[in-house]
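Run log // design_07
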């Protein structure tokens, strides 16, 4: 892909020096998340998997916003907490229904 990009676009390898180091961590973190998911997901219920992924995304977004913008959005925190509470409530309702059926 890089060979074709170089001929089509004015690609210069020196442009990589202008990219901050942490920008390259996305690929590494993605590999870690996929690998961990392959190990963890078969061992825990789907609801908890969804909760863990959601919590990770929300708090990672908040941390990135804080590092980049030097501020934390109260709306994002409140929205994330409301969604988290809703998912936890749903999980508890499902548990109660399962215990009542048995």
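design_07 sequence
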């Amino acid at each position: 892909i890089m060979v074709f990009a170089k001929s089509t676009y004015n690609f210069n390898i020196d442009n990589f020096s202008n990219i901050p180091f942490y920008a390259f961590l996305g690929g590494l973190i993605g590999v870690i998340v996929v690998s961990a998911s392959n190990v963890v997901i078969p061992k825990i219920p789907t609801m908890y998997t969804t909760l863990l992924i959601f919590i990770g995304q929300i708090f990672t977004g908040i941390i990135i916003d804080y590092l980049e913008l030097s501020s934390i959005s109260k709306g994002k925190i409140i929205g994330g907490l409301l969604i988290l509470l809703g998912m936890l409530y749903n999980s508890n309702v499902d548990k109660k229904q399962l215990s009542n059926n048995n």
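The chain has a mean pLDDT of 80.
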